[in-house]
Amino acid sequence: MDPLVLRKVNAERRARRAVVHVTDLGDGRDRLVREGDAVVGPLGAAIASVFRSGKSGVVELEGRSYFLNVHLPPARIVVIGAVHISQALAAIAKVAGFDLTIIDPRTAFATEERFAGVDLVADWPEDVLKARPLDAYCALVAVTHDPKIDDFPIRAALDAGCFYVGALGSRKTHGKRIERLTAQGVQQEALARISAPIGLDIGAASPAEIAVAILAEIIQAFRRRDLRTEAAP
Questions:
Q1: How far is CA 4 from CA 14, 18, 37, 70, in A?
Q2: Which intervals hold domain XdhC Rossmann (predicted)?
Q3: What are phi and psi of 169, to 5 degrees?
């Protein structure tokens, strides 16, 4: 890779923006395409596909060959609540290749003994997310059942455009959550993005099964996400 292109790719990665390095294998011309850049026709569709899959490769389009080298920011899962579901989710998220952080101000729950080897922060989400802000490549999982802990990060995730926002609770519980967030000025279009009850409907009963359902829904949301269309800074 040309050193100038490499510097640009590294700059995008530091800013947690996704890019595809497109090389025409016929004439060697190349360019960087950031997620949100307009590329029309079959090449645009192919670029969108690799943004979603995260898999680089050669594509044959209209008699030309292109190598699409995709660079995605590492997807992060931010879990609000150091509960049994979080213990199981931390284990399987690592296997699936996701970075995971658990935030819970309740020090009786957020202990190293219960979450050995996990990025665990025993503090209020309001404070943690100031230093470690959410972005479009984050999934937010709220599982404390406590509005004082869950509501702020849910709002922050919606504002940040997280690719997934899920919250534990029954439909009745979620209805009350919607009422609270509506009273705080959150728009209905944004509220409709919250997955609740959380996780794919696989009939999960135990904490481990619920964790599997949540991770499956996160993967589905990431691979099928709407690509960003705002102008990159």
A1: 16, 17, 20, 17
A2: 77-218
A3: 140, 160
Cα separation, 102 vs 37, whole angstroms: 33
Contact between 161 and 229 (Cβ < 8 Å): no
The type of residue at 226 is D
**The pLDDT of residue 231 is above 90:** no
Q: Are 22 and 70 in contact (CB under 8 A)?
A: no
Write out pLDDT tens, residues 131-146: 999 999 999 999 999 9
Which structure tokens are listed for 126? 């309001």
Q: CB burial class (10 A; 0-12, 13-18, 19+) of residue 233?
A: exposed
Residue 200 phi, psi dihedral angles, 5° rounding = -65, 150
Task: Enter the tokens of residue 172.
Answer: 């009745």
Beta 99-103 vs 164-167: how paired, if at all?
A: unpaired
